[in-house]
Amino acid sequence: MKNTAVDRRAYPEGLVLDRWHALDGWDHRRWTWNVPEPRKARGSIVFQTGRGDIFEKYLETLAEWHRAGWNLTGFDWRGQSGSGRFLTDPTVGHIPSFDPWIDDLDEYVRVWRAEMPGPHILAAHSMGGHLAMRYLIDHRPGLDGAILSAPMLRVVSKPLPKRLAAFIARQFARFGFADQHAWQENERPSLPGSSRQKLLTHDFERYSDEDWWLKHKPELKIGPPSWQWLVSAYASSAAMFAPDTFENVTTPVLIVAALKDRLVDANAIKEAARRLPNARLFIHDYAAHEVLRERDDMREEFTREIERFLEDRAKQAA
Predict the structure, then answer these.
(1) Chain-centroid distance, C-alpha 173
(2) pLDDT per residue over 81-113, tens digit each?
């Protein structure tokens, strides 16, 4: 995709922010950015962010897809960003179970598919990629394609073994800490000498976009996850990696990821790509977690793979 300048700190002309209510009444923040001439649309994409994330961070990527002719939409997951909170403490990233998130995605996608032209593509980052994969496995929606950016298919538990880390999380939740922060930093307990920026991207200007948006929209900010979020994440990963899960996904999937990502498990991503019947994995040696917000030289490799995938999906549907 051409690297045309995008104002990453302003909503683009034509993007609409409104509200979407799930069947159970939960009030979500929704955004929509359709192409100005409907007949020229290449198709439609739902884009979902990660844990504690905001879609504003991805306006550059969304602008590239929009220029290529794709209708775009998405919503904030319940319990974070502009979709309210589960707890009176708005800084805790809490969820009783991942199931309501998957149900929300199913409900949203079913209505979206009925209203918008295909091909229909689901794109998601990090925890959003986890939920998108669970959706493909559990609901088998038969979408035309899915793009997963650094998907958090398993929680990184290092230095503890996964089983021990999951056990500890369950004990904290069981003995009254379910709705308390599992750690104090916003991503994960950092390694000595590391910084949040280095975990996310090598590009300081793109990294700074998040801080700019949250200063202007502080109500979107959320802190570290709760112990119950961790319990739910381990349980959801166990369900995902059970026998005969990935193998039954019929949707073509592109996974773009980073080999040295310290926030998600690269080996889990590789296993998923091997087990999926129709998947392509592009994995970069040096990128950090937010591959769509990386330094230009690395980011262009990821966007090129995505552009090729979207072109293929559009041709298949033509």
Answers:
(1) 25
(2) 999 999 999 999 999 999 999 999 999 999 999
